[in-house]
Amino acid sequence: MPLFLLPAFILGAALLQQQAQLWPAGTLLAVPPLLLLAGALPGTLRTAALMVLALFFGFGWANLHAHWRMADELPPEWEGRDIRVTAVVAELPQPQARGQRLRLDIEQVHTPAARVPSRVQVSDYRDGRVYLPGQRWQMLLRLKRPHATLNPHSFDAESWMLQQNIRATGQIRQARLLQEQVWLPAYLIERLRLRLRQHMLATLQQRPWAGLVIALSIGDQSGISQAQWQLFARTGLTHLVSISGLHVTLVAGLVALLAGRLWQRRPQRLLWLPKRRLMLICAALTALLYALLAGFSIPTRRTLYMLAIAGWALWSGRNPGVWRVLLLAAAGVVLLDPWAVLSSGFWLSFGAVACLLWASQYRLGKPGWLQHWLWLQWLLLLGMAPALLYLFQQLPLAAPLANALAIPLIGSIATPLCLLGMIVPPLLLLAHGLIDVSMMLVGWLADWPAMNWQQAAPQAWSLILAGIGIIWLSLPRGWPLRSLGALLLLPMLLPAIQRPEPGQLHMTMLDVGQGTALVLQTAQHNLLYDSGPGFAGTDSGSRIILPWLRGEGIGQLHGMVLSHDDADHTGGADSILQNIHPHWLLHSLPHTHPLLQPKLNSISCVAGQGWHWDGVAFRVLWPDRATVANPAVKDNDRSCVIRVDAACGSVLLSADVERSSELQLLTQPLKADILLVPHHGSKTSSSRPFIEAVAPSVALVSAGYRNRFGHPRADVLQRYQERGTQIIRSDMDGAVALRCDSSGWHSTTQRAMARRYWH
After folding, report:
1. Is the torsion defined by CA of 221, 225, 226, 229 positive or negative?
2. How far apart are alpha carbons 88 and 550 in whole angstroms?
3. Which residues contact 6 (CB under 8 A, 6 or more apart)?
4. Cβ of 272: how many Cβ atoms within 10 Å?
5. I want to staple 60 with a disulfide (CB 3.0 to 4.6 A). Which of 27, 70, 381, 716 is the partner?
């Protein structure tokens, strides 16, 4: 197969995943006649036609699989209804702050007329019930279609659920065990992984890096804390957390070497099975078993396929070349899993290997092994910079030193000890001690502020220039004008950032689920209004707000408002305050609240306060002093209500005020173009007099999809619709960007701008 066909096939599959709608399922049927037509063309035209055809084949292949997967769905009419099923626990149960989360294979649906996808993810919030992989249960489930928050620069959980073939989510309402073990290989492997996890947890007993030891052993990352994930991200060690190609290759290589040494002691056996072939067999079997034990992730699949191709070549005496092996492995991953191209791990994994191959081929000079090792780490960081800045808007400058230290200690020593420790438990303690020392040194590197480059998301065209520049820079010494390649990096490293003109206002309502978080930007200032909710093990500050701020090039908050003491408005505040130190915090929190740190310039919110930024006026309308002084007033009615007046329009931010406070606000100038609907559209707010007084053109509703409170209420929405107000909802539209200029207000929603066929 011509080498150029492989990247074209991969690109075709990636192109399909960017479509807002799927093409007809029969698109792939056009390939055979087009292939015959391409074969009839002469020379160069035939080559170009075959490349286009390979791209079209990848597109059609991914399109066909997408049709099959999207057809396996929960009908909208069955959302939120109880459905009785027989299901098997398919994978390791994942512990949560409350209860546990399971993936189920649905075997039978007992509720008449109901249709349930073949695989679902559900939570059980009751303590005490034990689920084991391979158990068959009869359950009463309440499900909803895959839906998650959607924001620029943030993780697309709906895409991830599609990749994982999770076609519905929900909760368990009843459960009755039917069979202790279903004897299928996949379930037996998951049961083994569970027992190994329990064994390691019992041995390590709450040690700080126990989660990492388990991740290196069986690929289960549920025990790694948020703080540890942040450390890995700042130092470029995230690849060491997952069982990657490095681990699989290392373990397979060690087993192969051991087998070769043992076989060599029996010379008579070399007659019927040469040493090299024995080593290949042992390496292949070890890689396969380790990959299965690790959950068969994309990096492990990449390594497994590369080892298989290389092993076949050595066995048969052929030399396919390292680049062909890499591309064949990548094409094999996409052929079996067309959604692999949606995973950042796919591009980072194969990209890193490609960088190492290129660096080894064109490295400068002939340094010693230590110099060569450090040089490879710097070249790897440079080569991966476009992908890291595009995906995460940060570049861990500590990565070369951190990897130079951690790869030998953790990858080469600790990982084998973790695996052996599953048989000899004391070795787990030794591995943990080694990891502890390594992370102490890595943490010291991470504490240097200058070691983590953060910036706005670069434009796609700048990444192409940067890629050319990186290749140019890495060419051998003596190449003409090689240093000029650095100039091609500048558009990527210095992206243009759009700010409003003086007197104008940019506002973004982030999609944080059931909660509120808005960012307001003037020409030179940034304000965060509320911080969204907390989630199990994380919060909207670290998961949504900080990535968005970083992606937009906002490195400073000149002010922050926490409207009142409700978890869906303050849940992300701690992450924000730890990473970005606002100049001041305006709040309606109790004075004893843990967020009000002594070093923080905190100010209680009281009507009459105000400030001006760049021709834009901010004025606090509520709560009044009597409300602040009255401890009997509930939190919602203490909400900090702010009016914003720009040259081009006005905004009213009303947080969670309820009807009684709305009526008292009628004495204030309320009329505004944009209204943040009070209390997420609750029945306790949005009274008719209030709506008439505000008279908004656009009403923003920040609420979670099918939330348990029923927000926004249908009767509330009707009151806005009756007066012609446009309603924009985060649960339906994702993040909302509103731009105010000389021509008025302009709004865009994330689900409309970045729509994909699975949204």
Report:
1. negative
2. 42
3. 54, 327, 328, 330, 331
4. 6
5. 27
C-alpha dihedral (541, 545, 547, 553), degrees to nearest 10: -130
Specify whether the CB–CB gap between 48 and 2 falls below 8 A: no
Question: Are 377 and 404 spatial neighbours (Cβ–Cβ below 8 Å)?
Answer: yes
Question: How many residues are recorded in the chain?
Answer: 759
Minimum mean pLDDT range among 386-400, 474-488, 584-598, 664-678 = 474-488
Widest distance between CA atoms in the chain: 100
Q: Where are the alpha helices (DSSP H) in 133-225?
A: 157-163, 185-204, 210-218
pLDDT-based confidence at residue 505 (cuts at 50, 70, 90): very high
Show the tokens assigned to 693: 């007084």
- Burial string for 519-553 (b: 16+ CB within 10 Å, else e) reads bbbbbebbbbbbbbbbbeebbbbbbbbbbbbbbbb
* Tokens coding 13: 């599959």
Helix locations, 80-145, DSSP H: none
96 vs 273, more confident: 96
Of 242, 118, 147, 131, which Cα lies nearest the Cα of 179?
131
Q: What average pLDDT does range 645-653 have in this prediction? A: 95
> Please, what sign has the CA dihedral across residues 567, 609, 650, 616?
negative
d(CA 65, CA 245): 27
Q: Find, among 684, 676, 679, 686, the residue nearest to 707 by Cα.
A: 679
Residue 573 identity: A
Separation between Cα atoms, residue 208 and residue 224, nearest integer Å: 9
d(C-alpha 368, C-alpha 375), whole Å: 10
C-beta of residue 401 within 8 angstroms of C-beta of residue 438 = no
Q: Global pTM? A: 0.89
Helices (H), 447-586: 460-473, 490-493, 540, 546-551, 567-570, 573-579
- pLDDT, residue 4, reads 81
519 in Cβ contact with 541 (< 8 Å): no
